[in-house]
Write a structure and sequence with these properties.
Radius of gyration: 40 Å
Largest sheet: 7 strands, mixed
Order of helices and strands: EHEEEEEHHEEEHHHHH
Strand content: 15-25%
Shape: rod-shaped
Helix content: 55-70%
Number of domains: 3
Length: 355
Amino acid sequence: MATELSETKFLYNSISQTIKNEYLDVRQLEFGSKLNYIWSFFSVDEDSHINNKNAISFDITIEKMSPDKQFYKYSIKHVNEENHYEDKYLFLHYILDERSEIEKNNIEEEISQKLRKSKSFVINNSNSYVNEHFLFTVSEKGIALCSYDKDVKYGLNRHSRFLTLYLLAIAYNIKIEQFLEEGAQIYKIYRQKKDDKDANGIKDIIDFRESIYAFDLQYFFENPVKIDRYEAYIVWEVIAECYKVKHRHDEIKAQVLSLTEIIVKNKDQVIQEYEKEQQHKVEKAKQMEKSFQNRISLIGLLVAIVPIMIELIESYAGLRTYKNIILLSILLGFVVIFFGMFINSKIKEKRIKDI
């Protein structure tokens, strides 16, 4: 019953080429039976609907609501990366012979009941678009299309376009919320490792920010419909206003980008402070090394002078006793000097380890 749907050319190519969907002539669906299929956006993989990082997929179940009328209900669920269903939306499609059937069959009241489970939903200029071929309306949990076009085939193509637009609006909102959640997770990790000196950690933040820019450049448009497709263009405006697509996109994108800017700035500051501290330790180590070299030079000088002093004492004093005293004093001096050198070397080793 399902056939490939090629009518996505009313959208910009960068979006239409990544939509995976199916077309169904719902008039073939019998009362009491259901049909299920997957519809995906932003997917570039040929084999799977949802293994692409940007892909947003929906599980759609169609059922006929009346045994003798062309009334159909599309139950729409978002499929997340773990293949779990989230958030249920509705698309109500009424195929009529003429517009008067809307009032005759109390369709407006039925739409309100199904979309809000009450009579509070009122179709007006802010949430609908009406012309001589159809009535389209949108609420916070679904949309409804009453088609009374004499050209039934064109009416079915229209229904598929409007369903595409509705799902695209939801996909935009889901994607931007995913960006928000991902940004919050990055910030959480940043807070846990705030004082981490590893400059490589900044790469994840930069990659995340670039992924937002890349998604917007390829997929996001304030109105993704080509301007010469008037009906679809206006219907998108109605849907986007109801679902605050651009407002939510701009607001959350600004929050996420501001957050990444703060993290990058703070990370740079931590790295600069760390490098400054390291430089200070290196300079201090150089000073210690210089002091150590001076001591070595002094010892070398003493070692060179001692034989000369002994020769002088033997030549002019001729006293072995003095010689022994001097040798003992020199020996004690060496012991003190080498002990001091040993202590200094241990202190130096500890400081180098701390660096």
